[in-house]
Amino acid sequence: GLNYEITKKFRTGAALTWTEWSTIDTIKFDLPNPPGDNHLGLNWKDAWRVGFGFEYDFTDDFCGRIGYNFDMDPSHKNHGTTMLPPGDRHIVGFGIGYKILDNLRVDLGYNFIIMESTTRMLEAHDPSTGSERDFKFQTDNAYSHIAALSVTYNF
After folding, report:
1. Which of 52, 64, 151, 154 is most buried, judged by most C-beta within 10 A?
2. Which residues are CB-neighbours of 113 under 8 A, at least 6 positions away?
């Protein structure tokens, strides 16, 4: 990541993240009914996340922030799971921060996540036949909201 102070009150930053999702190939479950080991094959691929943002100091104690992230879907196009949100994600966020004391700060943030429409095939147990089979999993215009509050105290 990089951060740059444009002026004394205005800053910008950018980050590029690489996640090696492919190193997690299987999740194993030890279930009592039916007894034995079960596993979930993930078949994830490695993915990038890129983002940028801005921060502005309205006063010495009060600042505002805004940013955007693009988060690539690590799921394989022909085989997916419900372990991660499907489709590439666009994340738009903003927040405010207030310094109450020199060593005490409160931050409030909000993110809106837009997940691109996608279709995947999921392998699952079919209770009617007792065997594994593929099921179609589709999402359309999915979105999510995240709100956060943090309190920071520096010793």
Report:
1. 52
2. 85, 89, 90, 91, 143, 144, 145, 146
